[in-house]
Amino acid sequence: MATAEFRRERERTGKVPLKTKIIYALGEMPGSHMNGAIGGLLALYYNQILGVSASTIAIGMGLALLLDAVSDPIVGAYSDNFKSKLGRRHPLMYAAAVPLGIFMALLFSPPSGLDEAELIVWLLSFLILSRLTFTFFSVPWSAMTAELTDSYSERSVIVGWRQLVGYSLAGLYTYLVFNFVFSESEAYAQGQLNPENYTFFAPMLGGLITMWCLITTHFTRDQIQYFYQNQHAEVFRLGYLLRSIRSALSNRNFALLLTGALVNFGVIGVLGFFDMYVNTYFWELKGEDLGLISLFALIGPLGAVLLAINFQGRFEKHHALGLALVGGMIMSMVGVTARLSGLFPEYESPVFLPAITMIAAANAFFAVLTAIMFLSMISDLVDDQELKTGQRQEGVFAAGVAFSTKAVGSLGVIIGGFLLEFFIGFPAGQGQSEISEDVLFRLAITDAIVVNSLLLIPAYLISKYTLTRSNFAVVQAALQERRERMAASGPHAD
Questions:
Q1: Contacts of 442 (CB under 8 A, 6+ apart)
Q2: Can you give the residue ranges of every domain in the chain?
């Protein structure tokens, strides 16, 4: 791939303003709302309320996610090579905002009277449309992390704010949704099983997603002047796409990080499919319980962000990432193991909710620390890649993350659905019916022990990562020298 020339209209002096970090961080919310609804409620709604089999739902969800994954590198490479008055990222984000909200609202509001086959067609159609549209927002938005600053430490701070704002608003949102939308009623002690609650939830979900997309896109327009722009963009063809992907994968550290992400997101895909079943039937949590847990568990993300912001200079990013993966695995095992052993307090106990909230906070701490380190490392590799190849591939690298999330996550969702139906033996259409103890035991063991232990694999792979703080300083110095040399050689025609 030929070396390109990337320039900024204006060089940034000082740190990225706090206002910009917060507004940019609001871009976490569309994905948070969408993934929370799809990962937490979609299977429960279609399986337990509408009566569609878990394996059929899982295949539909997995297929939609797989097709979506294929679009990520395409959109990433297209975004990297895009030229407009609004830069490389913002036009695509604007275009996705309204359709995404509409498709998500329709996903949770199928017409009444549909049979199982028609429900699957509805589910698959609007799930694919939602995920494909989200790609046009999320990949360009994620690519902006590497463009906002060249600083090794500042990137972790930006990602930290992403996680803090995202988790804080998501926690407040979850609390409000489960206390007011999915609240307990006389007929339904667990409001997430009440079909009438989804009538209001669907349009509310779509409206919020569109709102957050437009806010973060519009109010970061003033940062476009600081973003790198390709002065000699190629015509976007298949050859350019393939060269971009091959170039990115030639970076050893990126390939290593991406492989670890593939395993991690595969595990998350399986666990995410189980989450609402575990919360609803194993822990017997009500909507209000879920809301309170999500609100008070915010201490975990806050702790992770403060750790990353204040102590970034004292540890290497890949060491922190490995610790976070292992810590999250252990904490996910603790609660379920204690309950199965008879050591965890019963639901009626006054310490039940505080205890489960502490576990949720610890899980959130490790999840956010994982995200901060992982996304910050991806941004660092963009500079490493530019030094090696002359190409700035923020979009392709961000797409690699999205692809691993979706492609392997789709397999995880399918595996989760099949495990739920054929190994765990969870019956469909049960609603509030009691589930047998042996089914709940298999659900808990599969979720907390069998699948969770696979997180040791990405933890081992990350230990082989080699782009340290000192190496990155050498990369930045070399890039600066190259840019000064190119600037001194005179202007280039566009």
A1: 423, 424, 425
A2: 26-222+239-484
Asked if 408 contacts 269 with a C-beta cutoff of 8 angstroms, the reply is yes
Helix and strand numbers (H, E) in the chain are 18, 2
pTM above 0.85, yes or no: no
Is CATH 1.20.1250.20 correct for 26-222+239-484?
yes
Residue 76 is inside which H or E element, if any?
helix 54-80
Show the tokens assigned to 190: 């667990």
pLDDT tens digits for 414-460?
788 888 888 898 887 655 567 888 999 999 999 888 888 999 999 99
- Largest interatomic CA distance in the chain: 76
How many angstroms separate the CA atoms of 138 and 494, rounded?
28
Element (H, E) at 10: none
Residue 492 pLDDT greater than 70, yes or no: no
The residue with tokens 């054929």 is: 422
SS3 content of the chain, % helix, strand, coil (to 5): 75, 0, 25
Geometric angle at alpha carbon 320, from 318 and 321, rounded to 5°: 60
Q: Are 241 and 74 within 8 A, CB to CB?
A: yes
Antiparallel, parallel or unpaired: β 229-230 and 6-7: antiparallel
Judged on CB neighbours under 10 Å (0-12, 13-18, 19+), 205 is: buried
Least confident of 282-286, 375-379, 398-402, 487-491: 487-491
Q: Which residues of 179-196 are buried (b: 16+ CB within 10 A; e: fewer)?
A: bebbbbeeebebbbbbee
